[in-house]
Every structure is written in C-alpha cells, then in structure tokens.
Specification:
homodimer; mainly beta; two-stranded antiparallel ribbon; 34% strand
C-alpha cells in the first residue's frame, strides 16, 4: 500500500483522470521544461492528486517516490516552479509541464538535472 | 523474467552502467528533445543495451515495454531520430536524448506526442 491518494478520492477532474495510464504505483511521469527557453529541467512523478494541485495552484507539485510524500517544488529551497502549461501525451502516461523556474531546478544547484553528466556530446 | 538484456551482458560502457539507477524492470526513462528547436518530442525507455546502441549507432533505440522488444525509432515508419547528444540526470534514472527528428515523432502522426491533449494552456 502506497501512501498517496487513491485516484477515486483525488480532486482531479474525472475526465482527465480517465485519460491517465498510470504505472503500477499509480504515477505518471512529468517532464518539466522551462517555458520560454525550452530547457528540459528535470523529470518528476505525479499521482492524480499531485496533478490536480499542479493544475489548480500555479505551483508544480510532485509525488516523491523516495520520501513517499507530496512535494511542492521550491517550498523549502525557494527554487519555485510557476506552472504555465500542462500537456498529456498520446498514450496518457507522460505529462509535459512547462514552468517558469526560479533559480536552479536541480537539488545539486545546477540549472537543470542534466547539466553534469554528458554521455555523448554534439559535434 | 523480462526479455531484454541483463546489464552484465550488455555492451554498455561499464563506467556508464555503474551510474544508472534502473527501475525494477531494468529501465531508465529517456526524454527525447529536438536538438535545435527544443521541442520535447516523446518519452521512451531504455535498458543498458538500448542505451549502448543509441550511443554508438547515431540512431535512437528504445526498449518497448508493451511489445517487450528493442525498437529503432523510424525503422518501419521512416521517421528516424538521429542522435546528437545524450545526458544522464543527477540521480541516474533519466536520460535526455537530443535528436534530429525526421517527420513526426508520434505514432499518431503529430510532430510530438504532446500536441493533442492540453490540460492547462498558457495565458
């Protein structure tokens, strides 16, 4: 039993909930992109309730798989994400969340979570 | 037992393999982005062998969770992805794959997998 909200008890619009194809632990992937520059900032995970809060609060909310709790991005660090646009992909298991990121998105202090480890570089 | 290659028998560089944090079914998420425009095209999944092939062949290769087989993007459709850059995120479970996408990335015929379903629109 996971700690997060059952889809039937979340506040997510039922017509959106019906289109989600959740992982076995009830989550969809959320690709987070800076709305104006196009930088891919991070990948997070959302259950129905995290998505509902993201759609209605202007602030990106995720489900932390490691801590098993909701987290509002930037709540402790101040590096907040202001939600601009949210899209669902063709098979309903991935969100594209366009945000305005304050400061670094990565907990390591870099702008994005993809800044440090380049496996293959563009020529 | 899944059908894909065990990490120890894949051709992936061991120093890269050691940095991956795989899901229970041995996969990492791969965010696919058009290298010049910044469009997020799709989310795929890779095991060690798919990543090895992506890094060495110029063409993006994924592990299909539904079909339980490797797929080289565009092999049947012609909508090929030419790999420009590959990055690993801070906690080793997500790749950012920058590609040059020929034609539509989505099997529905749209440019990206996020074109059809807007949950929240930018003002």
């Amino acid at each position: 039993m996971t700690g997060h909200t059952d889809p039937v008890t979340s506040s997510l619009d039922p017509s959106i909930a019906a289109r989600l194809k959740r992982s076995p632990d009830g989550l969809v992937a959320a690709i987070v992109q800076q709305h104006d520059t196009g930088e891919v900032l991070m990948l997070g995970w959302m259950d129905d309730e995290a998505l509902a809060r993201t759609l209605t609060s202007d602030r990106a909310t995720y489900w932390s798989r490691s801590r098993q709790e909701y987290w509002v991005k930037g709540e402790t660090s101040g590096n907040r994400q202001w939600v601009k646009e949210v899209r669902l992909d063709c098979d309903g298991d991935t969100l594209l969340v366009k945000v305005d990121q304050e400061g670094p998105a990565c907990h390591t202090g870099t702008r994005t979570c993809f800044d440090a480890d380049v496996l293959l570089a563009d020529d």
